[in-house]
Amino acid sequence: MNYRPLLLPCLLFFVFATNSCVAQNTQSTDMTEITQPGMAHTVYFWLQEGLSEDELQSFEAGMRSLAASPTVRRVFVGKPAATPSRGVVDNSFDYSLVLWFDDVAGHDAYQVSPAHLKFVEDHEAKFKEVCVFDNDVLE
Question: Which positions fall inside the Stress-response A/B barrel domain (predicted)?
Answer without folding.
Answer: 39-135
